[in-house]
Backbone:
């Protein structure tokens, strides 16, 4: 594949070259960093393993070793990142059989996580304590994300030109590289390019707040921006409101959950969030959908029992 004899090729070298050949330039930087991390783990765990020696027992040993210090979902992601390279090695005859077949995914017990979203009553309490002045600040961003469900990176990239006040829409067509050196980046996927309808209150508020600002400059970014800074502000506001502390991404979950509970279709919520597929929405909000299905059963039973 890469000009080495298969009996002298270390697996860590093969994997590094595979990532460089097939992933570099084809995936987002954040995903590429995950592959690079997997690459470092392989060098640490099995630095002297040759590709042709990789069988089911050896592979299960790699997974077990990684699982000692990681949660099960993280181990699953690690496995998936390795599997693509290994299956290519099988196809090329470098490995006789697929060593990932029937692998058992282990991992540490998941840590207690923060609540992912607020209910409608809790969200109202949170919005009441936001520090909304006559100039744009992070609290205004919290309000905007709560009411639109856009991603943090999408909110950072917003400019005055993205607001169509006459049609009451917000154009999402870029993100902000807050994890790197700043600047615009493409959206997560093509489906993420969308126009999000916004309510008249936001229209009035942001038409005033954006007056006099350059049309093509981000309205929230002032120098280097950190996700942790805005999350800290949100945590403080949650504490002031007496509601569970959630993350910025939790505001997005809150927005979607409230819409689903209000009866908005999964298809509409998926489009609003910029999901590539309704399957993503269904998987992410399965807990909400199951609760709604239970309510539907009650309605069905009441309706049927009323028939004579």
Residues:
């Amino acid at each position: 594949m890469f000009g080495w004899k298969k009996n002298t090729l270390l697996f860590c070298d093969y994997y590094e070259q595979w990532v460089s050949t097939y992933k570099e330039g084809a995936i987002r930087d954040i995903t590429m960093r995950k592959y690079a991390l997997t690459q470092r783990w392989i060098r640490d765990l099995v630095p002297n393993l040759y590709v042709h020696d990789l069988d089911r027992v050896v592979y299960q040993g790699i997974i077990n070793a990684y699982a000692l210090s990681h949660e099960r979902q993280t181990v699953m992601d690690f496995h998936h990142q390795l599997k693509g390279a290994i299956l290519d090695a099988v196809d090329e005859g470098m490995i006789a059989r697929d060593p990932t077949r029937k692998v058992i995914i282990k991992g540490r017990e998941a840590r207690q996580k923060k609540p992912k979203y607020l209910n409608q009553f809790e969200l109202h309490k949170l919005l009441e304590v936001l520090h909304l002045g006559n100039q744009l600040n992070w609290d205004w961003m919290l309000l905007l994300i709560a009411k639109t469900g856009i991603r943090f990176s999408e909110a950072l990239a917003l400019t005055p030109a993205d607001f169509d006040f006459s049609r009451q829409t917000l154009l999402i067509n870029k993100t902000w590289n807050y994890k790197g050196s700043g600047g615009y980046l493409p959206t997560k996927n093509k489906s993420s390019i969308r126009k999000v309808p916004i309510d008249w209150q936001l229209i009035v508020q942001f038409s005033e707040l954006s007056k006099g600002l350059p049309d093509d400059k981000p309205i929230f970014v002032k120098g280097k921006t950190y996700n942790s800074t805005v999350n800290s502000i949100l945590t403080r506001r949650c504490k002031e409101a007496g509601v569970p502390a959630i993350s910025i991404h939790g505001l997005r979950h809150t927005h979607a959950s409230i819409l689903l509970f209000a009866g908005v279709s999964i298809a509409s919520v998926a489009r609003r969030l910029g999901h590539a597929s309704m399957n993503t929405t269904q998987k992410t909000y399965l807990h909400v959908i199951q609760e709604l299905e239970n309510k539907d059963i009650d309605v069905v039973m009441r309706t049927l029992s009323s028939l004579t």
In short: The first strand starts at residue 163 and ends at 164.
